[in-house]
Task: structure prediction
Amino acid sequence: MAKPIMAKATAVWLVDNTTLSFKQIADFCGLHELEVQGIADGDVAAGVKGFDPIANNQLTQEDIDKAEKDVLYKLKLKHNPAAVGEEKRRGPRYTPLSKRQDRPNAILWLVKFHPELTDGQISKLVGTTKPTIQSIRERTHWNIANMQPIDPVALGLCKQMELDAAVAKAAKKLDAVMTDDERRKLVSTEQSLEMDTDPKIPTAISGLETFSLSDDPRGDDDDKEDDLPDADSFFNLPSGDDQPDVDDEDDEDKR
Result:
């Protein structure tokens, strides 16, 4: 149900200027009945000036008269075309100056403990910009060394209900894009702790870890040196005594 602007000040005016019941005023202003009773007793909203809902086009005198005659009648807020869509928050959340220095710590907490949240969701939760979130994700923020993760709910930057809703939405979206094969590959924490930490060699290549191109990889170095050919064998030319004398052959032909 839509609420009037300056609800508490409107309740002060209705308590002082009408004979409406506390419940009727509480339902119209969005307050608790005991809070309205506290306004009437002077314990709540002391010093608050009443806000006239008739002069500010939120109620009609006829509607107030009907409610005064019938205790079960509920006041109706007049439709204000200029106020349509005003309840929807636009842009990033406004953060008070006193809490803006705590935003990087809150972003670090969200990035660390809820990595499934998108930059847009974090931006709406704590009222920051996407470049700041990206710098903290990549640990390139200028003050990253002095930052520590702190729950944004504890800092008062967002409500627990808003954080839970954002996390549930992100988890649902992440589960929707995950295939069935990827879900089957997921193991529980207990299973992961019981798994062997040593890497296993696939059966398709088992036995190849000792493969070598040499016939005897464990042979002695002396045997290898004996098998090497002599450098002189590459130049195995006949000696001078074995070759015939060219001059002697020419003399025999002349004879």
Q: What stands out?
A: The two ends are 142 Å apart (CA to CA). The mean pLDDT is 75. The first helix runs from residue 7 to 17.
